Amino acid sequence: EPQFVESGGGSVQPGGSLRLSCAVYGFTFESFEWSWVRQAPGKGLEWVAAIGVGEAWIYYLDSVKGRFTISRDDVKKMLYLEMSSLDTEDTAVYYCAKDVQKLGTVVTASHRGQGTQVTVSL
Asked: Rounded distance, CA 5 to CA 23, Å?
């Protein structure tokens, strides 16, 4: 059964950094594109970043460009999100996800994990 295990979240001050990790089980990891999405309190899912097979392409939400870096390790079947210059607006539960789609303002994913909390505050 597919399973995602996210880790690396925590509480940091504005300007701080965190590295999120996601272990993926039950998929041929190297054959798929993967995404990070997040959900802030009281809001819907928001797509953050995506990485293609073999790192053929990488895309970011405009507000995280230059601050976040998505990467993958196909041998370890791991997905990563390096986050720096964190802002209070980045506070959310972060999920690694598969098959992310956006219809209007609604973001969905066919699979995602339990998430890891990132809190940015003074």
From this structure: 5
Q: Using the predicted structure, report yes or no on whether residue 2 has a pLDDT greater than 90.
A: no
Can you tell me whether residue 88 is helix, strand or coil?
helix
In angstroms, rounded to a whole number, what is the distance separating the alpha carbons of residues 114 and 42?
A: 17
Q: How far is CA 58 from CA 33, 34, 48, 61, 81, in A?
A: 10, 10, 11, 11, 12
* DSSP code string of 13-67: -TT--EEEEEEEESS-GGGS-EEEEEE-TTS-EEEEEEE-GGG--EEE-GGGTTT
What CA–CA distance (Å, rounded) separates 120 from 81?
16
Predicted confidence (pLDDT) per residue in 8-17, tens digit: 999 999 999 9
